[in-house]
Description:
The structure holds two protein chains of two kinds. By secondary structure, chain A is an alpha/beta fold. Chain A has one domain (3-241): Rossmann fold, CATH 3.40.50. In chain A, 26% of the residues lie in helices and 25% in strands. Chain A contains five helices and eleven strands, in the order E-H-E-E-H-E-H-E-E-E-E-H-E-E-E-H. In chain A, strands 2-1-3-4-11-10-9-6-7 form a nine-stranded mixed sheet. The chains are: A alpha/beta, B alpha+beta. Chains A and B meet through helix 1, helix 2, strand 5 and strand 6 of A and helix 2, helix 3, helix 15, helix 17 and strand 25 of B.
Amino acid sequence: MIRVVVICGDGLNCERESARAFELVGAKVDIIHINQLKSLKNYQVLVIPGGFSFGDEISSGQVLALKLKYQLADELKNFVESGKLVLGICNGFQALVKLGLLPKPFEPRTMTLTNNTQKQFLNRWVDLEIGAKSPCIFTKDMATLKLPIRHGEGKIVFKGDESQQKKYYEELKKNHQIVFTYTEDVNGSYQKIAGVCDPTGHILGLMPHPEAAINQLLMPYGEKKNTAGPALKIFENAVSYFQ
Amino acid sequence: MEKFKRIEILSNNLTPSPGIVQSVVKYLELPLQMAEEVRLYWIQSERKLATEVFSEIFVDDVLQTAITTLDDSYNKRDFDFVVETSFKPGVTDNSARSALDALKLHPACRGQDFKIATGKMYLLKGKLTSVQVELLSRKILANELLENIKIYSKDSFLKSDRFTNYTFPEVKLEEVPVKTYSLDLDDHELEKMSQDNLWALSLSEMHQVKKYYADEKIKAERLKKKLPSEPTDVEIEILAQSWSEHCKHKIFGSEIDYIETDNKTKTFGSSKIKSLYKTYIKGATNKIADSGKADWLVSVFSDNAGIVRFDKNIDLCIKVETHNSPSALDPYGGALTGILGVNRDIMGCGIGAKPIANTDVFCFADQENLNKANVPLPEKLLQPQRIFQGVHKGVEDGGNKSGIPTINGAIFFDDNYAGKPLVYCGTVGVLPQKTTSLKPTHEKNQKPGNLIVVVGGAVGKDGIHGATFSSLELTEGAPATVVQIGDPITQKRVMDFLLAAQKQELYCSITDNGAGGLSSSIGEMAAQTNGARIDLKKSPIKYPGLSPFEIMISESQERMSVAVEAKEIKKFLAMAEAYGVKASVLGEFTDSGFLEIFYGEKLVAYLNLSFIHDSLIPLKLKAKWTGPEERVFWHKKETRSTLPNVTQKIFEQLLARPNIKSKEAWVRQYDHEVQAATLVKPFTGKTMSGPSDAGVVWLYPHGGEENQAVTISCGMWPQISHYDCYLMALYSVDEAVRNAISTGANPKKMVLVDNFCWPDPVLSQKNPDAEYKCAQLVRANLGLYEAATTYSMPFVSGKDSMKNDYYQVDAQGKPLKISVPPTLLVTAMGEVEEVENLVTTDFKKADDLIYMVGLCQYQNLNESELSRTFLTDKVKPEDVNLDFNFSLYQKMYQLIQNKTFSSVHDISDGGMLTAVFESCLGGDLGAELELSAYKNNLLPLLFNESTGRFVLSLNPKDEKKMEAELKDFNLIKLGKVTSDSTLKINKDLTWNMSHLSKIWRGLP
Lengths: 243, 1004
């Protein structure tokens, strides 16, 4: 059985629904408090769920990133290097970016997430396009998706002046690392980027919440049917990757 | 290198804050052109630290640079002034708390202690005088109650010594040893003593205290314990808290002499009422329970929140609180602590419930209306817009950062909320029905010998006298210590820990620390075991110098009190530590009959528990109902305009009214679907912008049955309080219920929560019309009772806030009083039997037929938003026929279960046409209404706001069947849904939907 670890604590708050999503597709999931997470050895998938770790103080995901870095250090490095999967959703994505695991692990940081142009938290559903050639394991055979965003700091920006920013962006694009793109500008994100993966496709980070669309009942409109929702496929893809 | 550092986090590229500029220009009319916010940290370490360490922690190097010395970094910025804000001593600084967490994670910092403070700088550009900068700093950028403001001109900023010169905000207190109060005083002196000490004890209560200490038996007991015969400050403060209006609800428990002299409104006859609460609130619930119609009530009125059983697996609890006075002083902190406080009520309900949804309702004055009327606010009052923004942000942070979805709410405007805003915060929680060892979860099981443990934050001066303060009216000299800022992350940690500890049954009882602090939480828990003994020295404190009584009554946030069996304490404390949560053993429960409070070795309070809890003599009040009054604003200005003679214009102006226009921009800043269980969201339909009538939470993800959900909805109708609060109560209940029914809730399984916010009904020199307000209170209770019992919907919880007045004496010595209109919020929680049968407000398909159903005469213009916007003939609100409405609701439920309707939307503010418009807007569709038969009474038909009505849409094939079912319910066919995005009435009135939508959303 595929084993998934979802971390919780310090203000993270989407651990239960993230765990439920993986359970629905047959994984065995442990929700583990970050203070107690010492080893990742037994797991194939690491999930850093959404929430407000450390209250989004300093900047969102920043303190959590420090904690992951100094607490898990080699564990995390080994996990990533052994080709296992990492999923960061919303605050989890922010932490992966601040930690430097995305867009390219263990390289100098070139991308970050900052305040939405509106300078406000925003909860709304968005339409997403999925990069067709993306190596991302989680989005195999997927083309579009409707998900909610729930963040105040989801605007992706690159380092440097305009030409440098463009260079970093083109590089991601060339590697097909831009997994999710909003169909309209929702928060000022560079070229409407909503989620990226590392060059191998094993690490995915995205601002929208796939765990919030795992049942048709949770969709914002349309017939109320208690059946699988469109985003469940993301979790299925992760599990079937190991089967 | 020095061990002190000031770090300014400057963005590499200019990142202006347009919101600040907007507020300054709009509300202060000052020519501010640009504002940029810069974050500040002051850090003192034991050993010197490399700049790289700070950078790694505090700077996102993709975007920002850390400025730590005077250099040329600011040269690339164009600004005229800099405003620096920092917290005053003792104010909760959440950024500093997280910064400390972050520092401690870094290997270079291990084993070190730090002092940290945070602040903000605003770089401002604009042709402003320094006086204007000072004004905008006070009005927009900072709250002087909590923050220090420092203003630099550009030159002085560039040359300032700010990187080397700084004093950390430190609370410097002299510990005041326990003192005693002699009560050997005359009445006047007793009253003065109570007032001066902010005890809010009435003269008769002071006498009651005096009598206790004069008792020979008590005297002997005290002598034996080596206590002075006079009360200690700790004792009298405990009594003041426990007996405060906030904690004891003395007005709702009072004996009222009700006299009726009016016969134009419904008559009940004069009567003597023993207790409003027991007669009408509890009375309604008991009557319904006795009739056997509510066998799903588990626990009502006895705990922090009411508990009900709609589901086979889990129980639900609900509680709604108000936080008005704190929000008037510090809107952000007040609202934040409001929502976090009611979350704690749920966390402390039964054996500890998990919050699954929030509901928030606010009442403010309308800034634009005040501006238009050119009414200057009293200087000490905050501008309504600022209160709105602060309250909204507080509730946003409180809900979002706790991971609890805000699924329902309302924002209501009336100029009479200028003196005190109303901030209602409610929370729904789930409880397993049985603990791991199969004990019922609604019972608290503390026993003598159990340890008393306080979990969560440390105690400071914050919130001292909060409970007694809110029992006093707001005046100019309100103390700053009543204001406090919550810390959602500390509370989230506490919540995560307690839910995990509960699974392992590491504690046996729990309650929250709210108003009154330890004196209330331990005082209440001790009532069950009949005694408690604690040592205040064992409570963690934020800073030294606190007096024992302050530790006892401080309302410092994020704390829960629990009872732990001695054999579990080790495990309990270890688990707390693992979750990063403070837990301190303060003492133990006893059965001595006394509350024994020590400070170290010294006994500082020794109070008989039955004296604390059961000795209050009921208040005696008079109520006189003399009939309806005119609606009057405190500023006495007419704000209505002439009624246009074109319906077109009337509707367009109504849509732009604050109580009708879209609140989407505000509501979308709340997370309304975290926990992934929100089935009906605040906005619905293809456009996701049609307002929903109720929020719905699926119970399955929370351990409930797969097809089960609950609706949360609210109703409030202070618009007609000036006319008759009896009718107002009926309107409020009906609206809450109607909103639930229209979403698909079961009328046979619905519970209510009542929250009264009233102007002071107790007679005093400055409150001469108290008897009228007391009569309004009585009549509201009569209305509540009648509505609840007719609908068979019991109250399970409720709260009242009875001093919502602002007093001030102006420069000429003329008194000014601003009182809120009597306001009753009714919250309804209803069962949803089958999640697939939920229905939303948006039209679904072109050619669906549109109907209106429900009782109304449509003959005259009634009291409505129309009559509040335009000058019309004298109008009165339409009556309510509860029996008719309830039959309709049952019928509606049956039809919704049969999936008869495509959409159902309740009719409320703005009447039928507004409801039709909202349904069109949600579905991205239009409508064609054929109303020529109503040519002569079109306005009443379109804009009446009477109760019990819905706009329905359905597939034409179901028309006959539906008409047969609803024929007795005043069914009116309105027209059909169209695909062409216009709203048409009788062919001669046409609106483009996108035009209306712009008006409604307030877009240019």
